[in-house]
Specification:
alpha+beta; Aminopeptidase; Alpha-Beta Plaits; 2 domains; four-stranded antiparallel sheet; binds zinc ion
């Protein structure tokens, strides 16, 4: 682009303005491309353990725009030894996160754009009004498992990265791009990427935040409750069995849930709703016959909590609460800390300036009542589009909001790394 004469700072300002206009136009022109890319990502059923093919799509795309890429695997033993990493879930053989790097000229701040590619399973595809893996477009909504959580964000961020790579050749800071695994069960994908040194001076994660910036999220631990029983004909049973013990244990955990919700100390979490910390029994297993007492019943529990408590403290309280029920508790998957990063600072300012330019108003803060990968990055925020039915039926993401997110992230990144 041509730069008019004038003082150096004036020329710089003009250059930045023209560059910003070009970025906005560029992203607007990529809307169809974004939809096609998102469809391709949704079509890959990247549930836990099946992330390889979607990772190849991202890696290929990054290479085409000049990024050097590498794979980061999880050191399971190191994860186990870190009190805030997740308990390894599956073997990490053949499973990795993708990290791309596009160097700047040097001397500038780096930006790390990130997202997760794993999605949760579909429990009842028959209840969906559309194919969960079809990426069907209806008006402005694109449907599919993972469309909102968070392949829409991955697609938007890729479009943003492409725009910056192409239109900001004088950029001084490096641009990093990662797509991680296991955000939905351990967080060990992001944990290992940062641990491998791919940190960046700022981190943005494209979760569907409704075009707000999420600076805080609850902590989460997962556990497996195992209630033993004696197998046999139910006519021999004397009333209490594995299920009753399991029910007592769940009730005991509910009292811990009540206690922590009655003592919410962090005003940001208290403002979300009356009970910001939730427990879910997501899955139960066991038994083979109605008239047979089961050998064993298992319940899988997700437990949310706030920054008042550390994961190990919650685990101890859960253990103590159920100790008289005879039910075993095994911690697995998440042992994620809650976090509440500052709502102000240079990254928020940069994001706000870009958001205001595109949306005409300041960007609003958001507190997440689930865990997100930004807990591992003190300088990290989530920012992404509008979506609904995350983890549920007929999950969808709003395509216009993804174009907005891509534009805001491109402008933020260009300014940050200039
Ligand atoms: Zn997510």
């Amino acid at each position: 682009m041509s730069v008019p004469s004038g003082s150096l700072s004036e020329r710089r300002r003009t250059h930045r303005r023209l560059e910003a206009e070009a970025l906005v136009d560029h992203v607007a022109g990529r809307r169809d491309d974004l939809v096609e890319l998102l469809r391709a990502l949704v079509a890959e059923r990247s549930v836990l353990g099946e992330e390889a093919s979607v990772q190849r799509i991202v890696e290929q795309r990054l290479r085409v725009i000049g990024f050097s890429t590498e794979r980061v695997t999880v050191d399971a033993e190191a994860a186990l030894g870190d009190p805030y990493a997740g308990y390894p879930f599956l073997s990490y053989e053949g499973r990795s996160s993708v990290v791309g790097r596009l160097p700047g000229a040097g001397g500038g701040r780096s930006m790390h754009l990130s997202g997760h590619v794993d999605v949760v399973p579909v429990e009842r595809p028959d209840l969906w009004s559309r194919d969960p893996w079809g990426g069907e477009l209806d008006g402005n909504r694109l449907y599919g498992r993972g469309s909102a959580d968070m392949k829409g964000g991955v697609a938007a961020y890729l479009i943003a990265a492409e725009a910056v790579a192409e239109l900001c050749p004088e950029r001084r800071g490096d641009l990093l791009f990662s797509t991680v695994i296991e955000e939905e069960c351990t967080g060990n994908g992001m944990w290992s990427v940062l641990r491998a040194g791919h940190v960046g001076d700022a981190v943005l994660v494209g979760e569907s935040t409704g075009l707000r910036f999420a600076h805080a999220a609850t902590g989460v631990v997962w556990c497996r409750l195992v209630a033993a029983g004696g197998a046999g004909h139910s006519m021999l049973a004397t009333g209490e069995g594995a299920f009753d013990r399991l029910a007592q244990a769940v009730a005991a955990l509910r009292t811990v849930e009540d206690e922590i919700n009655a003592a919410v100390g962090d005003p940001d979490f208290a403002a979300v709703r009356e009970r910001p910390y939730g427990m879910t029994v997501g899955r139960i297993e066991g038994g083979v016959w109605t008239a047979s007492t089961p050998y064993e019943l298992t319940a899988y529990v997700r437990f949310g909590f706030g920054p008042e408590t550390l994961p190990e403290e919650i685990q101890e309280r859960m253990r103590t609460a159920i100790q008289d029920t005879g039910v075993e508790i095994h911690f697995e998957g998440f042992r994620a800390r809650a976090h509440n990063h500052p709502k102000t600072g240079p990254l928020v300012d940069a994001l706000n300036a870009a958001h205001e330019r595109i949306l005409g108003e300041s960007v609003a803060p958001l507190v997440n009542t689930g865990t997100v990968d930004t807990r591992y990055a003190d300088h990290g925020l989530c920012y992404g589009g509008i979506g609904e039915n995350l983890h549920g039926t007929d999950e969808w993401v709003d395509v216009d909001s993804l174009v907005h997110a891509a534009t805001v992230v491109a402008l933020t990144t260009a300014g940050w790394t200039a």
